[in-house]
Amino acid sequence: MAGKSQWGEPLLTTFPSATLDARLNSDRARKLRSIVYEVKTISMLTRHFPSKILDDDWLVLLDCQTRKQRLDYLKFLRNREREREKDMEKKRLKEISSSLFVQETKCEHSSPLYYPTAKLAKEQRRQLWQRVANAYRCGAPTLVIDCRFLPLLSPRGAELTSIQLKYLISENRDSSAPWQLYFANFDLSNDKVRRLKRRHLSVIDSSSACSPVVLTIDYTHMFGRERIVYLSPDAEEELEDVDDENVYVLGGIVDRVVERGISRQASLEAATSDRVCCKRLPLDKYVKWKSGNKFLTLTAVSSILRDVNNSGGDWESALRRNIPVRNIRSAEEKCAAGRQLHEKIRHFDNQLLQILDREIGQEPL
Fold it and tell me: Which band of pLDDT confidence, cut at 50, 70 and 90, is reported for residue 205?
């Protein structure tokens, strides 16, 4: 990778539009031009590069504070493309399978009991919507995501967190026992939050979707402080029960990204500032943690709370079912090939950043 002979043709084919350029002041327009040159250079040094970069993506790259953040975001875009390609292939195979099933059913069953696939899907969506609506009507347990951190997250962290929020909506919708779901401190006056909503959370504007209740205000204005339990891995007290009366709050911060602009104990500090009870999951009591930190994804924590509530307090099964395998295996137990691959990726990224420093100059501190 060190020599010019190993450079490839630039993979960058989509550039900022004239509309975007016209929206920027002279300083940001100048910075964007230098970022485009940097991104083009990166596209000559790696094959793991997105096929398309939209104006919204250029704005995210413009807001990145470091070259490393921009590289991470480009990798994130490519990974997301690959996931979509896999999803499309799964959908294609599912449609083929469904079509064959319908044809077989039509041949085998000519009775009035046959239910067309489209009508069945519509009925299933109606039942899902009804279950979520009943959760609010009948006082199901309440989960609140504190979104105050979204504007402070790094571009990659904000994208990952928004995707987690989208997954959270889907999992709650598909659950046999959905909870009341709220997004609080969702600041729609913030450009970054509006962009994330447009990219990943447009479902919350749908009148027909099983969407959460979105609050621009703080959750303490919606619920009594005596009912609120803010969950944080840094809390001193362990959570013992998950009952229907309490309101459980999770900080909207993705688990695997170290955020320079956010305190490592942000959720504990938020709970202290809001004067609400703060507790942590009883991980040490039921799980032998062997590697990694004890920050879980929003979807993992949500599933744990739901399973404990449904089972009447079976923490051990809930934790075993929802904690990633990587956290309950020691470094020695993990796949050596996987560790070597991650080490190669880190080494490649470091080399790439060094080449950028040499070819286009180091970033100003």
Answer: confident
